[in-house]
UniProtKB/TrEMBL annotation:
<keyword id="KW-0648">Protein biosynthesis</keyword>
<dbReference type="InterPro" id="IPR023168">
    <property type="entry name" value="GatB_Yqey_C_2"/>
</dbReference>
<dbReference type="Pfam" id="PF02934">
    <property type="entry name" value="GatB_N"/>
</dbReference>
<dbReference type="Pfam" id="PF02637">
    <property type="entry name" value="GatB_Yqey"/>
</dbReference>
<dbReference type="InterPro" id="IPR042114">
    <property type="entry name" value="GatB_C_1"/>
</dbReference>
<keyword id="KW-0547">Nucleotide-binding</keyword>
<dbReference type="InterPro" id="IPR004413">
    <property type="entry name" value="GatB"/>
</dbReference>
<comment type="similarity">
    <text>Belongs to the GatB/GatE family. GatB subfamily.</text>
</comment>
<comment type="subunit">
    <text>Heterotrimer of A, B and C subunits.</text>
</comment>
<dbReference type="InterPro" id="IPR018027">
    <property type="entry name" value="Asn/Gln_amidotransferase"/>
</dbReference>
<keyword id="KW-0436">Ligase</keyword>
<dbReference type="InterPro" id="IPR014746">
    <property type="entry name" value="Gln_synth/guanido_kin_cat_dom"/>
</dbReference>
<protein>
    <recommendedName>
        <fullName>Aspartyl/glutamyl-tRNA(Asn/Gln) amidotransferase subunit B</fullName>
        <ecNumber>6.3.5.-</ecNumber>
    </recommendedName>
</protein>
<dbReference type="InterPro" id="IPR017959">
    <property type="entry name" value="Asn/Gln-tRNA_amidoTrfase_suB/E"/>
</dbReference>
<dbReference type="InterPro" id="IPR003789">
    <property type="entry name" value="Asn/Gln_tRNA_amidoTrase-B-like"/>
</dbReference>
<dbReference type="InterPro" id="IPR006075">
    <property type="entry name" value="Asn/Gln-tRNA_Trfase_suB/E_cat"/>
</dbReference>
<feature type="domain" description="Asn/Gln amidotransferase">
    <location>
        <begin position="330"/>
        <end position="477"/>
    </location>
</feature>
Amino acid sequence: MSKQYETVIGLEVHVELATKTKIFCGCSTAFGGAPNTHTCPVCTGMPGSLPVLNKQVVEYAAAVGLATNCSITQHCKFDRKNYFYPDNPQNYQISQLYLPICRNGHVDIKLEDGTEKAIRIHEIHMEEDAGKLVHDDWEDVSYVDYNRSGVPLIEIVSEPDMRSAEEVIAYLEKLRLIIQYLGASDCKLQEGSMRADVNLSVREVGSTEFGTRTETKNLNSFSAISRAIEAERDRQIDLIESGEAVIQETRRWDDNKAYSYAMRSKEDAQDYRYFPDPDLVPLNISDEWLGEIRSCQPEFKTEKMARYATEYGIPEYDINLITDSKKLADIFEATTSLCNQPKKVSNWILGETMRILKDKDMEPEDITFSPENLAKLIKLVEAGTINGSVAKDIFAVIFDEDVDPEAYVKEKGLAQVSDEGELRSVVEKVIADNPQSVEDYRNGKDKAIGFLVGQTMKAMKGKANPGLVNKILKELL
């Protein structure tokens, strides 16, 4: 009988905070930008330059801690983590080892089958990001870009409480949602503003001893994380089954090849020679300051869901999908307050908006159209100024260019034709041109009328009032 194995997983999640400037200097944190243009003596590690802590970083870190049920370390400090790497300009990273800002929290997750579980958070600490090496294979050289160096991060370290890829994804999605609702980060995995390192080991079912763990890095999508977990689990089980030892090491995942390879053997904390940073004073978070941060906590998904059900009366299915994204929830609330049509707004968000996002491979956070223009579009349809199919075409333009639909309808002459005399003459011509469909309809084939409506809409360039066209057709037939 073959042995049964259990996977044990803990995560280290790095989140880039949404501050305008870096953690210890005034340089911009904007993504992109020509290499080494968002830099100064502090973030490039020039001798004699001194770090000054960005207050907003502390507020974001504490807010995430409060939202994940952590206790806040009101007296905390920064430490230097010493290591040499080309993208690390000072040859040390400013981080927190001894007194991290948040400790002993948890988030509750819910799995597909309805199982609920609490994933414990060991700590959350603040630190600065390193730069980025850009490898040029053609020239066989590496360039270093320090734009990202000094961008503020929080590192959320979980306890080894997860047992499957499904639990890991549920935990990450919950964290991402909390952080996006707080506005502390956009958490875009593809831009690296949320990155997860997976610590994984396997052990025989029933064993209480942990196995040897490996850490897998370079994971920038939920699907890559799932694949890497499955592959690493299988790799470790194969090693154990064939009598070999799992080596504690850091591994890098190549998602294209679905393969991981060893980067380096895993160091222990003492290899980094941590000591308190002499250039930064210890941090005191007063009760009053912590109270201010607590009072600014937003309404999270659970509270929003309850309020939407009573305030807007839309189906639970709609509520769940809309509140899954802070951006969609904001658009929904703002548009509804302008046009007072919650179900119509929900239909536009869950229908056309989601369809276009999927087609363009975009995230809700990338949406640029304004609630004002969506509300105007809904009002135009409600007033019968345009019909549904024209509205969809206009929405595609609103999505891309945020045009004013009222002006656009005037400029392009898209207003719906509801002049019965004008429509009647077009319908008469359609009937004359399509004797077969007329015959089919009279022989009881109700679907034939759909074809005739379609031909009339085509003749009217989609601008006819479909209800009126139907009425006239039935009358004439």
